[in-house]
Structure to design on (598 residues):
C-alpha cells in the first residue's frame, strides 16, 4: 500500500520537470566516468522511469502525443550534455596523462631535480636523490646546506645562489664537492635557474648530477698529457744526444759511431711505439682500429718476438715452451703488439729478476699463452683495473716509464680476436698474464641435448635435477665471451622448459676469464632469467680472482629480484638452495596447510 502511495505521490512531490533534470545529472556522471556509450544507454534507461512514473497517465508506459515533443527535447538536451561531458572527460584524461608524463620524466630523469624557495629551503626533491645522495627526498629537503656541501665549497655555493637570486631568469652551472649520506665525498654539478618570478614555478630550480667519474677522467687525461709529453721528450733528448755524440766521434773515434747510432735507433723505436700507441688509442675510441686477417703460424710469431726482444733485454732470459706449429687466423701485426706489450711489461716490472717464462699450449680449441715474471707483482685492488685505459699502479708509476696504454690496447686486440685474458699475481712475487685465442675459427664442438632437460657441450654441462627441482650448470675449462653467452642462453632455454625457480651454477672448474661477458650478464641475461621465473641462484666461484671479479660485476643488476649467493663449496651452495623456498613452494605449502586445517 505504502509503495502505491509513494508511486502516486512522485509527480506531485517532484513536479514533471525535475526528473528530467535529475536524470540529466545521472547522465553527466555516467558519461564523465564511463564514456559516451554508457551515457547514451543511461538516456534510454532513464526514459523508462520518466514515462512510467511521471508522464500521465502515471504508472503506465502509455504516451500521449504532446509528450513526444517533451521526450524529443529531453533526448536532444542530453545528447548535447553527453557531447560536453565526453569532451570534459577527454580533456581530464589528457591532463592526467600530461601530468603523469611530466611526473615520470622528472622522477626518472638522469638528473636530480630540486626546487628551493627564496630562503634556500627545498620544497620539492625528486626521488633520484636516493641514487645521487643516498638520502630520501624528505631527508634531503630537511638537510641544512652547510651539512651537505663540503666546507671548501660552501662559501662559493652560497655566493652563487645569492647572485642567481638577484637576477630573475638567470642561469648558472655550479660545480661543488658534496657529501653523500654514506659520508663519501662526490663531485656534483648543478644547472641552477632562477624561476622565482616564473608563474607556476616560483622556485630556484636545480638539475643536479654526480660528475665524479667525469672529473676523475678529466684529471686522468690531464695527467696523461703530462706523462705523454714526458715520455716523448725523453727518447727525443736521447736521440739528439746520441746523434751529436756520433757526429763528434766522426772526427776522432769513428769506431764509436755504430754504437751511438744503435742507441739512437733504440730510442727511435721507443718513440715510434709511443706514437703508435697514441694513434691506436684514438682509433680504438672511434672504433676504427683496422685489422687484416691472415692465416699464420702463431708459434713462429712468438719465437720471432721473443728473439727480437732478447736482442735489447740482455738481463732477462726468456724461457719459451710452445708447440711447433699453431695455425691461426688473425691479425699478425696486432697479435705481435699484444706479445710485445706483455713481454716488455714482464721485463720492465721485474728489475731484480733475470728470467721470464713464456708458454703456449693447446687446450680443446684454444691456444693459451702465458707470460710469467718474478717481479713486483700487483695487489688485488689493482688487478681489476690495470686493463683500463691510462691506468697505472700509483706507487710504481713514477719509477717505471710508461703510458698505461699497453694492456688496454692488448685487451682490445684480444677481444677483436674473440679471445680473452686474465692474470694471476702476488705482490712481491710476480705476475702471470695469460690470454686465450680460438685457433680453429670454425671449431666443431660435440653437443648433446634433448632441448628439455639437459644440454652438454665441451664447455658446459647443464642438467635438470628432478629430485631437487632445480637446474645444475657446470662450466668446464676455458671460457670466452662467446661460450659464456651461448651457455647462458642454453641455460635460459632449459629454465623455460623445466620451469625451475632455482639454479646451481658451478664455476669451480672454470679456467681463464670471461669478464667481457659480465656486462651482458647483468644488463641482459639476468633480467631474462628473472622473467623466466628464476628466484634463487647459487654460484660456486672459480678459485681465480680475476674470474671472481667478473662474477661480481655480472650481478650488478639494477632492481634485480633474483637472490644470488656466492659459495666456495658445492655442499654449502646445495644446503642454501635446499633451505630457501621459492614463491611457488611457499604457496604450495600454504595450500597443503589450508587443506589440512579444513
Ligand atoms: P705502456 O703504455 O708503455 O705499456 P704501462 O706499462 O705503464 O705503459 P700497461 O702495460 O697498460 O701500461 O700496464 C698498466 C699497469 O699495470 C702498469 O703501469 C703497472 O703498474 C701494471 N703492470 C703491468 N704489467 C705488470 C707486471 N708484469 N708486473 C707488475 N705490474 C704490472
Ligand atoms: Mg706496458
Amino acid at each position: 500500500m505504502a509503495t502505491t502511495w509513494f508511486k502516486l505521490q512522485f509527480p506531485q512531490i517532484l513536479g514533471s520537470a525535475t526528473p528530467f533534470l535529475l536524470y540529466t545529472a545521472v547522465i553527466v556522471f555516467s558519461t564523465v566516468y564511463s564514456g559516451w556509450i554508457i551515457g547514451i544507454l543511461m538516456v534510454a534507461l532513464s526514459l523508462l522511469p520518466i514515462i512510467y512514473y511521471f508522464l500521465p497517465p502515471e504508472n503506465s508506459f502509455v504516451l500521449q502525443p504532446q509528450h513526444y515533443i517533451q521526450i524529443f527535447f529531453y533526448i536532444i538536451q542530453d545528447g548535447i550534455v553527453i557531447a560536453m561531458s565526453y569532451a570534459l572527460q577527454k580533456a581530464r584524461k589528457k591532463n592526467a596523462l600530461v601530468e603523469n608524463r611530466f611526473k615520470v620524466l622528472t622522477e626518472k630523469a638522469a638528473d636530480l631535480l630540486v626546487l628551493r624557495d627564496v630562503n634556500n629551503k627545498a620544497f620539492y626533491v625528486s626521488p633520484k636523490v636516493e641514487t645521487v645522495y643516498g638520502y630520501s627526498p624528505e631527508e634531503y629537503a630537511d638537510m641544512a646546506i652547510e651539512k651537505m656541501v663540503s666546507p671548501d665549497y660552501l662559501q662559493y655555493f652560497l655566493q652563487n645562489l645569492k647572485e642567481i637570486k638577484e637576477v630573475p631568469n638567470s642561469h648558472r652551472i655550479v660545480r661543488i664537492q658534496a657529501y653523500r649520506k654514506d659520508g663519501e665525498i662526490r663531485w656534483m654539478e648543478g644547472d641552477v635557474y632562477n624561476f622565482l618570478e616564473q608563474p607556476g614555478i616560483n622556485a630556484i630550480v636545480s638539475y643536479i648530477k654526480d660528475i665524479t667519474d667525469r672529473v676523475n677522467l678529466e684529471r686522468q687525461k690531464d695527467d696523461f698529457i703530462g706523462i705523454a709529453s714526458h715520455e716523448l721528450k725523453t727518447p727525443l733528448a736521447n736521440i739528439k744526444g746520441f746523434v751529436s755524440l756520433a757526429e763528434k766521434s766522426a772526427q776522432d773515434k769513428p769506431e764509436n759511431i755504430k754504437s751511438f747510432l744503435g742507441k739512437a735507433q733504440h730510442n727511435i723505436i721507443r718513440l715510434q711505439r709511443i706514437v703508435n700507441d697514441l694513434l691506436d688509442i684514438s682509433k680504438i675510441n672511434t672504433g676504427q682500429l683496422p685489422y687484416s686477417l691472415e692465416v699464420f703460424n702463431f708459434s713462429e710469431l712468438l719465437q720471432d718476438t721473443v728473439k727480437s726482444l732478447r736482442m735489447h733485454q740482455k738481463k732477462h732470459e726468456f724461457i719459451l715452451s710452445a708447440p711447433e706449429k699453431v695455425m691461426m687466423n688473425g691479425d699478425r701485426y696486432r697479435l705481435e703488439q699484444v706479445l710485445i706489450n706483455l713481454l716488455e711489461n714482464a721485463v720492465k716490472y721485474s728489475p731484480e729478476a733475470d728470467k721470464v717464462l713464456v708458454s703456449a699450449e693447446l687446450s680443446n680449441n684454444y691456444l693459451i699463452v702465458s707470460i710469467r715474471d718474478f717481479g713486483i707483482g700487483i695487489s688485488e685492488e689493482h688487478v681489476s683495473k690495470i686493463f683500463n685505459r691510462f691506468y697505472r699502479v700509483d706507487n710504481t708509476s713514477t719509477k717505471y716509464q710508461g703510458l698505461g696504454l699497453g694492456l688496454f690496447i692488448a685487451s682490445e686486440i684480444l677481444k677483436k680476436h674473440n679471445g680473452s685474458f686474465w692474470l694471476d699475481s702476488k705482490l712481491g712475487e710476480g705476475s702471470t698474464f695469460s690470454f686465450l685465442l680460438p685457433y680453429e675459427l670454425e671449431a666443431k664442438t660435440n653437443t648433446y641435448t634433448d632441448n628439455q632437460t639437459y644440454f652438454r657441450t665441451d664447455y658446459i654441462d647443464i642438467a635438470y635435477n628432478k629430485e631437487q627441482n632445480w637446474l645444475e650448470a657446470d662450466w668446464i675449462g676455458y671460457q670466452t665471451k662467446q661460450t659464456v653467452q651461448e651457455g647462458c642462453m642454453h641455460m635460459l632455454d632449459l629454465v623455460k622448459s623445466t620451469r625451475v625457480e632455482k639454479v646451481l651454477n658451478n664455476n669451480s672448474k672454470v679456467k681463464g676469464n670471461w669478464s667481457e661477458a659480465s656486462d651482458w650478464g647483468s644488463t641482459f641475461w639476468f633480467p631474462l632469467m628473472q622473467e623466466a621465473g628464476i628466484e634463487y641462484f647459487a654460484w660456486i666461484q672459480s678459485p681465480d680472482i680475476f674470474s671472481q671479479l667478473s662474477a661480481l660485476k655480472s650481478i650488478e643488476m639494477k632492481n634485480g629480484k633474483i637472490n644470488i649467493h656466492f659459495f666456495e663449496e658445492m655442499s654449502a651452495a646445495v644446503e642454501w638452495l635446499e633451505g630457501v623456498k621459492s614463491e611457488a613452494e611457499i604457496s604450495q605449502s600454504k595450500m597443503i596447510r589450508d587443506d589440512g586445517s579444513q
